């Protein structure tokens, strides 16, 4: 891998209240003053949630990694169930929601924003746009060569993050296939590793949630595929998911519920949209 090809924005640039962060500024009318409120977020969505926290937390109430931390889905869910955190922000499957519903006093799942799952290929791949049906066909084994979808005469190699990763989970739900799909049991554990794997293999295809690729880690030897003519940033892009606030409605922390209600107001939605769209690295 050529390090000059990597477009990397370190996580610290998104940490609330750091002097060198690149988070947006918004004149919010609500403030979190409770230093005990604990939020965790799936890593791909950290920039957006950090942008929200920067503007609603009072600085005196915010402690890095205690007030807001990033993690992977299975740990975030277990931390919520065990009472280690108050809110987990992620995309969750029906099975995960059912597990939380059984474990929590009153499971709440409140949509915060919509997010796309980007499909990545190598820069040398001539395919730039495929249909949703063709994408399904690749993972159902119907198409095994790039020539089948308008590309070069080379075997398609699919790459995927490992079990329990939110991108893998989202892709399974996004394809919505009645046929068993070709998601290899991958040893790829991190999102940068997946991006770099696609960058090193001209026959590769992989998927990753768009905000991570667009805002935190990309590689010039990769690019995303348009699907049915739509880029991942388009409102018409077909593989989108609700990213939700997951919490226990019986949680006694007053400011937890006040924050959720604020984010559902018109002003809260404007703040969320600003945090969601700011500081793209890739378009």
Distance between the termini: 22 Å
Shape descriptor reads: globular
Backbone structural class = alpha/beta
Summed over residues and divided by their number, the pLDDT gives a mean of: 92
> Helicity range of the residues?
25-40%
Tell how many strands the DSSP assignment holds: 12
- Largest beta-sheet details: 8 strands, mixed
**SSE order:** EEHEHEHEEHEHHEHEEEEHH
Q: What are the low-pLDDT stretches, counting only 5+ consecutive residues below 50? A: none
C-alpha-based Rg, rounded: 19 Å
Concise structural overview:
The chain has 283 residues and is an alpha/beta fold. It contains nine helices and twelve strands.
Primary descriptors:
283 residues; alpha/beta; 8-stranded mixed beta sheet; two-stranded antiparallel ribbon; 20% strand
Strand and helix map with partners:
Elements (H helix, E strand, L loop, with lengths): L5 E3 L30 E4 L3 H11 L11 E4 L1 H9 L5 E4 L3 H10 L3 E16 L6 E2 L1 H8 L17 E2 L7 H10 L15 H9 L4 E6 H6 L1 E3 L2 E3 L1 E2 L12 E9 L5 H10 L2 H12 L6
Parallel strand pairs: 2-3, 2-4, 6-11, 7-8
Antiparallel strand pairs: 1-9, 4-12, 5-8, 5-10, 5-12
Structure description:
The strands form three sheets. Strands 2, 3, 4, 5, 7, 8, 10 and 12 form an eight-stranded mixed β-sheet that branches. A two-stranded antiparallel ribbon has the order 1-9. Strands 6-11 form a two-stranded parallel sheet. It has nine helices and twelve strands. Helix 1 (46-56) links the parallel strand 2 and strand 3. The model has no long low-confidence stretch (mean pLDDT 92). The protein is of the alpha/beta class and 283 residues long. The protein starts with 5 loop residues before the first strand and ends in a 6-residue tail after the last helix. It is 30% helix and 20% strand. Helix 1 (46-56) crosses helix 9 (266-277).
């Amino acid at each position: 891998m050529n390090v000059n090809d990597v477009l990397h924005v370190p996580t610290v640039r998104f940490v609330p209240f750091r002097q060198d962060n690149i988070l947006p500024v918004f004149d919010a009318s609500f403030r979190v003053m409770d230093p005990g409120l604990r939020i965790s977020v799936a890593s791909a969505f950290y920039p957006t949630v950090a942008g929200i926290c920067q503007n609603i937390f009072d600085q005196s109430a915010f402690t890095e990694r205690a007030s807001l931390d990033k993690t992977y889905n299975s740990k975030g869910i277990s931390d919520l169930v065990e009472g280690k955190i108050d809110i987990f922000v992620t995309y969750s499957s029906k099975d995960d929601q059912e597990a939380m519903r059984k474990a929590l006093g009153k499971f709440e799942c409140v949509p915060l924003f919509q997010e796309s799952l980007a499909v990545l290929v190598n820069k040398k791949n001539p395919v730039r746009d495929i249909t949703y049906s063709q994408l399904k066909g690749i993972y159902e084994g119907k198409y095994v060569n790039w020539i089948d979808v308008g590309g070069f005469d080379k075997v398609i190699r699919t790459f995927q993050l490992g079990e329990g990763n939110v991108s893998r989970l989202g892709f399974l739900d996004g394809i919505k296939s009645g046929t068993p799909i070709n998601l290899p049991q991958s040893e790829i554990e991190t999102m940068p590793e997946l991006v770099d794997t696609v960058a090193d293999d001209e026959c590769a295809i992989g998927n990753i949630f768009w905000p991570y690729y667009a805002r935190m880690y990309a590689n010039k030897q990769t690019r995303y595929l348009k699907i049915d003519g739509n880029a991942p940033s388009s409102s018409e892009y077909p593989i989108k998911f609700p990213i939700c606030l997951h919490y226990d409605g019986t949680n006694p922390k007053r400011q937890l519920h006040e924050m959720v209600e604020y984010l559902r107001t018109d002003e809260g939605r404007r703040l969320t949209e600003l945090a969601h769209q700011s500081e793209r690295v890739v378009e």
